[in-house]
């Protein structure tokens, strides 16, 4: 993934900017984070209650939380629907970085974060409960160095895709 676009001199507060990290910066940025280190990933296109609950649950599993966002290209390959993601990768990163539960935000351009996981080497890898951890290559990779893979409780009824569909649906009545 290319370097992050410069946000210096923008209206983004520096505490938020300080949580954004390009992949090349990760080794030095990770070195100062407390352990156990928790890692999760996703598109996080339109932040909703389900996302916030999952991120809070993830943070509760350790001392630091790293969130890896799918790049725009990676998100498009997931086939979430026309015009997705709605928010650009840097904008999604700023929103996630603003959350108190999140310590560091980075991006990945691949279809899965497996290579990024090998670089970060978290103590805990987690995903929402709508994923079967036994089927995820990411879970197998983290277990190679003794890490844990955890399925978080799923906040039923909260989905960005459902929200986008509802907004796009013609109003009835």
Written overview of the protein:
Helix content is 34%, strand content 15%. The protein has 173 residues and is of the alpha/beta class. The chain has a five-stranded parallel β-sheet, sandwiched between helices. It has a single domain, classed as Rossmann fold, CATH 3.40.50. The chain has eight helices and five strands, in the order ααβαβααβαβαβα. Strand 1, helix 3 and strand 2 form a beta-alpha-beta unit.
Summarize this structure as a short list of keywords or feature phrases.
173 residues; alpha/beta; Rossmann fold; 5-stranded parallel beta sheet; 8 helices; 15% strand; globular
Describe how the helices and strands are arranged.
Blueprint: H1 14-17, H2 26-30, E1 37-42, H3 49-59, E2 64-70, H4 72-77, H5 89-97, E3 104-108, H6 114-120, E4 124-127, H7 137-143, E5 148-151, H8 160-168
Parallel strand pairs: 1-2, 1-4, 2-3, 4-5
Order of secondary-structure elements: HHEHEHHEHEHEH
Global mean pLDDT: 87
The CATH superfamily name is HUPs
Tell me the major beta sheet: 5 strands, parallel
Helix count? 8
Helix content: 25-40%
Report the end-to-end length measured between terminal Cα atoms: 46 Å
User: Given this structure, which CATH class is correct?
Assistant: Alpha Beta
* CATH architecture title: 3-Layer(aba) Sandwich
Our estimate of the beta-strand percent is: 15-25%
Strand order of the biggest β-sheet = 3-2-1-4-5
CATH topology: Rossmann fold
What overall form do the CA principal axes indicate?
globular
DSSP summary, beta strand count: 5
Calculate Rg over CA atoms: 16 Å
Structural class: alpha/beta
What is the domain total for the residues? Answer: 1
Unreliable sequence segments: none
């Amino acid at each position: 993934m290319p370097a992050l676009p410069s946000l210096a001199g923008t209206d983004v507060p520096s505490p938020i900017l300080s949580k954004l990290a390009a992949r090349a910066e990760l080794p030095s940025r990770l070195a100062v984070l407390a352990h156990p280190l928790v890692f999760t990933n996703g598109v996080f296109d339109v932040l909703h209650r389900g996302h916030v609950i999952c991120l809070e649950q993830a943070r509760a599993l350790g001392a630091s939380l790293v969130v890896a966002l799918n790049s725009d290209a990676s998100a498009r390959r997931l086939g979430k629907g026309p015009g997705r993601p709605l928010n650009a990768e840097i904008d999604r990163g700023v929103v996630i970085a603003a959350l108190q539960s999140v310590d560091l935000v980075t991006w990945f351009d691949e279809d899965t974060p497996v290579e990024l996981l090998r670089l970060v080497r978290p103590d805990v890898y987690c995903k929402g409960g709508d994923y079967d951890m036994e089927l995820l290559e990411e879970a197998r990779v983290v277990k190679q160095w003794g890490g844990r893979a955890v399925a978080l409780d799923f906040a039923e009824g909260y989905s960005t895709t459902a929200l986008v569909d509802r907004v796009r649906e013609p109003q009835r009545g």
